[in-house]
Amino acid sequence: MTVDPRIAAVTARIVERSKPSRETYLAHLSEMATKGPFRSTLSCGNLAHGFAACSPSDKADLAGDVVPNLGIITSYNDMLSAHQPFETYPELIRKAARDAGGVAQVAGGVPAMCDGVTQGQPGMELSLFSRDVIAMSAAVGLSHNMFDAAVYLGVCDKIVPGLLIAALTFGHLPAVFIPAGPMTTGLSNDEKVRIRQLYAEGKVGRAELLEAESQSYHGPGTCTFYGTANSNQMLMEIMGLHLPGSSFINPGTPLREALTTEAVKRALSITALGNEFTPVGEMIDERSVVNGVVGLHATGGSTNHTLHLVAMARAAGIRLTWEDISELSDAVPLLARVYPNGPADVNHFNAAGGLGFMIDQLLSAGLLHEDVRTVWGKGLSSYAVEAKLGDNGSVVREPISKASGDPKVVTTADKPFQPNGGLKMLTGNLGKGVIKISAVKPERYVVEAPARVFHTQAELQDAFKAGTLTGDFVAVVRFQGPKANGMPELHKLTPPLGVLQDRGQKVALVTDGRMSGASGKVPAAIHVTPEAKDGGPIGRIRDGDMIRVDAVSGSLEVLIDADEFAEREPAAADLSHNEWGIGRELFARFRDTAGTADEGASALY
């Protein structure tokens, strides 16, 4: 299959830029690969500790060097719907491993927090940095060096990126990611948003709001809108880390269990003890990363991945930039309408053909690299399938239909919903930022209006309640970057700004904070860097300055005299309230050492 020249050019640029770091990374993997099968390097005392709690048969298997041992890294907790299904996975995985002639052990657990629970709360300021904690936690589990491969149980926002950073850090081991799937469809997304906006206007009370939210988020599984969690699942499949067709199968179904069992057997078959050794650090290369970005654009995915993909790629020695992501957006059409880009949820998306259909269309248009390595052992065309349950309870895969099951939800590459992807980089005298345009109406791609400046999202909400947000304006919410307060998501801004936009006002948002995968109909220049805490230009904006957010030309400007703007003293903010409470004291070093948003906002690099 011929790759579109624009895709090929970006890929070649990433390869060239990454050569020094990628070569060093692969050299490290090569050195590690000479030191396994990994538990054979342990002393007898080491090994005895490692299998002391195992059954006699597992001890006997682990005492030798011919039976593969599978490490399980789990993000299970029973408070979060997306991760609750993982409670029963370890026993299922252990049984599947034994049936396949191997052993499986839970190597460690990682924290899993939910941005949906912490929205607008102090705990949200730990969220982004939890990605780095997850990577380190997984590394602790795998550091025992008992394992020939690892499976990773994770779904949501920071969990999968953190797990992949860990997997690539242990890139000499094969890695298979095992999803839990989305919850079944509840209250429609349009109705949920309607109730939220009515609540913001004071037209319904908390009881009505809670009832609507409870009908939306009602059972085990991932939230069904296309936010970061479901973008994660798309990425793991299109990058070849899931088994084909496995991302969006509901929890608690026979097919979900069959896919999990199959993933375990596949993980055991690709260890160094077999004939298909597939270390994940070699498997994931620049082409895999580009495929992930293409999938993100084609599905209108989460803006959080302008942070996460950069950080994940870096863990493999690959240097991805926002410029790469933006250039790919210009080459990739939008092929999915899943909320917030449309009324459908991920269950509708999957029923309409889902990711298999999308991969087939993108491959046909030359927009993906087909010749990548995957955990399935074949190129990416093997993912253009639909997974079903066979008569004997195993998984069968059928070629995907060439016709969309619902053209309003997924479309063909020759009839896209829009000619470019969901994410775009903005640059100008305010620095760099990103904007998600897939859910924004074209007439709102450009907003030029006076600034209204706030230092917290609570200040903007208070102004909305007081009725002072009149006329057209650009809300500037600053001191929300990684160094200031951990870069929380600012979704409490969405309902009031959405209400004002519906009233006919021209509004936009400019912030050094995040809005994530649920970024919706209000044009929002987010992740602005340098952040205000780092002396970025966003800190010199004053009320009334004319701001231009232009998603067509890709510019982000304050329209005042350049010399006058440069001479201004940056605003100061009292950030002491970000430094304590709900564990924030423990994350001071993360805030101090955090990188910039365009470098992944990580404290690890």
TrEMBL record:
Gene3D superfamilies noted in UniProt: IlvD/EDD C-terminal domain-like
Keywords in alphabetical order: 4Fe-4S, Carbohydrate metabolism, Gluconate utilization, Iron, Iron-sulfur, Lyase, Metal-binding
Catalytic activity: 6-phospho-D-gluconate = 2-dehydro-3-deoxy-6-phospho-D-gluconate + H2O
Pathway of action: Carbohydrate metabolism; Entner-Doudoroff pathway
SUPFAM superfamilies linked to this entry: IlvD/EDD N-terminal domain-like, LeuD/IlvD-like
Role played: Catalyzes the dehydration of 6-phospho-D-gluconate to 2-dehydro-3-deoxy-6-phospho-D-gluconate.
GO biological process, one term: D-gluconate metabolic process
E.C. code: 4.2.1.12
Residue span(s) of domain Dihydroxy-acid/6-phosphogluconate dehydratase N-terminal: 68-381
Gene Ontology MF: a single term: phosphogluconate dehydratase activity
Species for this entry: Hoeflea halophila
Recorded GO CC terms: cytosol
Classification via PROSITE patterns: ILVD_EDD_1, ILVD_EDD_2
Family: Belongs to the IlvD/Edd family.
InterPro entries, alphabetized: 6-phosphgluc_deHydtase (IPR004786), Dihydro-acid_dehy_C (IPR042096), DiOHA_6PGluconate_deHydtase_CS (IPR020558), ILV_EDD_C (IPR056740), ILV_EDD_N (IPR000581), IlvD/EDD_N (IPR037237)
Co-factor binding comment: Binds 1 [4Fe-4S] cluster.
Required cofactor names: [4Fe-4S] cluster
Protein name according to UniProt: Phosphogluconate dehydratase
